[in-house]
Amino acid sequence: MQYSYTPEGVCATRIDLEIEDGVILKCAFTDGCDGNSKGVSRLVEGKPATEIIALLDGITCEGHDSCPSQLAAALKRYLEHHRQR
After folding, report:
1. Is the pTM of this model over 0.85?
2. What count of Cα atoms within 13 Å lies in the side-chain half-sphere of residue 80?
């Protein structure tokens, strides 16, 4: 299933995900730090969303929220929405 999330308080302006059976198949950030976004995307693809949430939730960047933490927020929102259907 395709899912797009609009992050808050970070450089990235959108996170696009493809998730199937709770596993992240694709992850792409729009804007933000190009190298870091590509690196994070490659590291999370093929992993269970719950595992990535546990790893990335709460990571900060210079005392503020971070793109990895916003990815965790996107995954939480996706799982909440998906489980309600």
Report:
1. yes
2. 7
Structure tokens at 14: 């959108």
| CA–centroid distance for 47 within its chain | 12
Angle at 13 between CA 11 and CA 16, to 5 degrees: 125
Closest CA to 3 of 33, 26, 35, 21: 26
Look up residue 85 and give its DSSP letter: -
For residue 58, CA distances in Å to 18, 70, 85 come to 22, 9, 27
Cα dihedral 33, 39, 43, 44, rounded to 10, equals: 30
pLDDT in tens, 8-56: 999 999 999 999 999 999 999 999 999 999 999 999 999 999 999 999 9
> Which tokens hold the place of 28?
């792409």
CA distance linking residue 21 with residue 23, whole number of Å = 6
